[in-house]
Specification:
Distance between the termini: 56 Å
Low-confidence stretches: none
Structural class: alpha/beta
Number of helices: 20
Strand order of the largest sheet: 2-1-3-4-5-6
Number of strands: 19
Radius of gyration: 24 Å
Length: 587
């Protein structure tokens, strides 16, 4: 453990002490493989991530593997670690990261990339894979951002593309039996579905900066890397015990993943494409998982997780059974992800049986034209009727999510966001007085469009910061109800997110330069510095115009083209052309 005098000097010592409820304890001397699960954000965020809970339980379910956790230290802790030359350690055994066999980073958000470099540096490890000797840990990464691993390619030994519950265990099998060099081990695992070893692929560029060629340079590696997929969600591993933090985190609740994938296919949504196919769990499986997790954790809330929970085909039955089993124990149910058109009064009434949680709807587009362009599949009437059902069900606080800067957007589409919010407020006041117990609260949240790989909009230019700012002002001007608030995302962060999301291998130099300039926790407003990143662009000679603000052609080689997520480029082109047709060619 870090010394007491160190912990007393930081804001939240509980981030660094471990010993949480259900923490796995093993003897490191008796295992074949030690794996450090690295979450490149602060403890409170990482401990709320369901993927951490799943893989921590899965990996530790093997007697020959010990999976420990490490999170990005907050700025106060980092300052002390650098001042006193303290290495970054795991929470289970307080072993320095440099002593592990593997360090596995989860890649959930592009704006955490500088934290990855910072954690490697605090571990005393060279940043670039080519500079790390044989006795250093193997650095790997996975998660949604790994579908374009190229911006981080120079720092990682391998990436795992797709779902790790089954295929990643083969990596441990081969490592336990391996006797040769690190390169020989990487050659062995390169044949596992989902594994991508950047050193085994070469890239060449055209004079204009676009990619001329990307190809395997090792005979043991496939030309295309196929994502790994869990086929049966009922038999897939799921924790029986949940790690319970000793300090407050973003989410303190039981997380039940009801299905993966999405049946909708919204054209802006990367998750809807990369998590295909759509796979559901049976109700009895979910009730049994809830029972295990509630018993072992003491949590008082069950959150039903998916991309759109009310697309779960057995939702009514599931909510009934969960209430039957747990309502008497004052366990509440929350639906964090709802499609406003599918919200029905029966389900809403059932999930508030114990206590009300907030309701969040995502129309995404303010006008019908925009919703049709993005293939949202809901009408104005669907939205207004969904809001009415929510109000009649007893909710008076609604959050509405929108995206601005989408292809084909015009000024009237932005002012339509405010009008929709105003109309929803009026619906509340149209209810009988006995239904209106207090004034409503409608929160409009507008994020800036970030073009992502493996979506029909992956070829589009993004708007510059100045245009996003003008759009944000238009939305705000259209909201004239005192009962509708307005929040928006920082446009400069979204612009950088797009650079990293669609970047090629050269962007690794940009990330490293920004880190050297002091960039950390770039997704946190109190730390983000536009100037540090601007200097990084100058230091590397890279152009934001090239990565963000230009239209890509269908024939251009994209940095992620060698990855197969199960959705073809031809299909994405077809969907993009369909969006153009909706907009009358104005996209």
């Amino acid at each position: 453990m870090y010394r007491d005098d160190v912990l007393l000097r930081v804001e939240k010592p509980g981030r660094y002490v471990g010993n949480e409820i259900n923490m796995v304890v093993k003897n490191p001397e008796t295992v074949a493989t030690r794996f450090a699960f690295a979450f490149p954000d602060v403890y409170e965020v990482g401990m709320s991530h369901n993927g951490l809970q799943i893989l921590y339980s899965l990996f530790n379910g093997r007697e020959d593997v010990y999976c420990e956790r490490v999170f990005a230290p907050w700025s106060d802790m980092e300052a002390i670690m650098r001042e006193e030359s303290l290495p970054l350690k795991t929470l289970e055994t307080f072993t320095p990261l440099a002593e592990f066999d593997f360090i596995g980073f989860t890649l959930q958000y592009e704006m955490s990339y500088t934290n990855i470099l910072n954690m490697l540096d605090l571990a005393g490890l060279p940043l670039r894979a080519a500079d790390r000797p044989e006795n250093h840990p193997i650095i790997c990464g996975g998660g949604p951002c790994a579908v374009n691993p190229e911006p981080l390619a120079d720092f990682f030994d391998f990436f795992f593309i797709g779902e790790a519950e089954e295929a990643f265990l083969q990596v441990f099998d081969l490592y336990a039996a391996h006797k040769g060099t690190k390169r020989q081990f990487l050659e062995k695992i390169a044949g596992i579905r989902g594994v991508y070893v950047p050193a085994f692929y070469g890239v060449a560029y055209n004079a204009d900066g676009t990619i001329a060629n990307f190809a395997a340079n090792n005979p043991n590696t496939p030309a295309r890397v196929k994502k790994a997929v869990v086929r049966d969600m009922d038999t897939a591993h799921y924790p029986q015990k949940a790690l319970v933090p000793l300090i407050e985190t973003v989410h303190n609740r039981v997380a039940l993943e009801v299905f993966r994938g999405c049946i909708r296919g919204c054209r802006f949504c990367q998750a809807g494409f990369i998590y295909r196919p759509h796979r559901v769990k049976q109700v009895d499986t979910l009730v049994a998982q809830a029972q295990n997790l509630l018993t072992s954790s003491g949590h008082e809330e069950i959150s039903l997780l998916s991309l759109a929970t009310n697309d779960y085909p057995y939702l009514n039955e599931l909510v009934d059974k969960l209430n039957d089993c747990f309502a008497s124990q004052h366990i509440s149910i929350s639906l964090p992800s709802l499609r406003i058109d599918a919200a029905n009064q029966t389900v809403l009434e059932k999930v508030q049986k114990v206590r009300k949680s907030s309701l969040t709807f995502a129309p995404e587009g303010g006008s019908q034209k925009m919703r049709d362009i993005i293939r949202k599949g809901i009408s104005q009437q669907d939205i207004l009727e969904g809001a009415r059902l929510a109000f009649e069900g007893g909710w008076d606080r609604l959050k509405l999510y929108f995206i601005i800067g989408l292809p084909g957007e015009e000024d009237e589409d932005l002012t339509a966001i405010g009008k929709l919010a105003n109309d929803i407020v009026e619906i509340y006041y149209s209810l009988p007085k006995e239904k209106r117990k207090r004034p409503p609260g409608i929160t409009v949240s507008a994020s800036c469009f970030v073009p992502k790989p493996f979506t029909p909009f992956q070829w589009y230019p993004q708007k510059p910061v100045s245009e996003f700012a003008a759009k944000q002002r238009l939305v705000k001007a259209g909201i004239n109800s005192k009962r509708a608030g307005y929040k928006y995302h920082d446009a400069d962060v979204s612009v950088l997110e797009a650079t990293l999301a669609r970047g090629d291998r050269r962007v690794g130099g940009l990330i490293e330069a920004a880190w050297k300039n002091g960039a950390r926790f770039d997704g946190w407003s109190e730390f983000f510095s536009w100037d540090k990143w601007q200097k990084a662009f100058e230091d590397t000679g890279l152009s934001m115009d090239f990565y963000n603000f230009r239209q890509r052609g269908y024939d251009e080689v994209l940095p992620w083209d060698f990855i197969d997520v199960g959705v073809t480029k031809d299909y994405l082109i077809k969907e993009n052309e369909a969006a153009k047709a909706v907009a009358g060619g104005g996209v």
